[in-house]
């Protein structure tokens, strides 16, 4: 059986670990757990696909490739290379941590581009 001192130290460790867990769930900027980091930004998806990821480049890409033809899945679009198409298809099929960014891109590419008013 553990002594009172040993139990006190164990309780302090548990309390510290519990506090760290609460902080990681509720305070941005503190180390995130794998469960918390469950999605990626659209710019991160563009980097993952090997594409320029600045806001202007993303907007230009969407404008150049939208709207996707009706009935064409995102991964079947003709402008992807084989690796990019496979990544997008697998992200959706496996409901991976990329799925939110892939859905965001899919939605953006389904919209007609805004007319140039210049």
Features:
single chain, 118 residues, mainly alpha, Arc Repressor Mutant, subunit A, 2 domains, 55% helix, 0% strand, globular
Quick gist of this model?
With 118 residues, this protein is mainly alpha-helical.
Lay out the secondary structure:
Elements: H1 4-26, H2 42-48, H3 55-65, H4 82-93, H5 99-110
Q: How would you portray this structure in words?
A:
It is globular, with a radius of gyration of 22 Å. It has helices spanning 4-26, 42-48, 55-65, 82-93, 99-110. With 118 residues, it is mainly α. It is built from 5 helices and no strands. The protein folds into 2 domains: 1-37; 42-110, Orthogonal Bundle (Arc Repressor Mutant, subunit A).
The best one-word shape is globular
Q: Termini distance? A: 81 Å
Care to count the β-strands? 0
Instruction: Spell out the helices and strands N to C.
Output: HHHHH
Strand content: under 5%
Oligomeric state of shown chains: single chain
Main beta sheet strand tally, sense and closure:
none
CA radius of gyration: 22 Å
CATH architecture of the largest domain: Orthogonal Bundle
């Amino acid at each position: 059986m553990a002594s009172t001192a040993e139990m006190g130290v164990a309780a302090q460790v548990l309390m510290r670990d519990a506090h760290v867990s609460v902080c990681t769930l509720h305070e941005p900027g503190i180390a995130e757990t794998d469960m918390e980091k469950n999605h990626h930004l659209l710019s991160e998806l563009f980097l993952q696909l090997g594409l320029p990821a600045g806001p202007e480049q993303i907007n230009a890409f969407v404008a150049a490739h939208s709207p996707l033809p009706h009935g064409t899945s995102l991964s079947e679009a003709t402008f992807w290379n084989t690796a990019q198409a496979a990544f997008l298809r697998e992200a959706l099929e496996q409901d991976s941590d990329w799925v939110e960014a892939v859905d965001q891109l899919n939605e953006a590419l389904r919209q007609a581009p805004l007319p140039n008013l210049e």
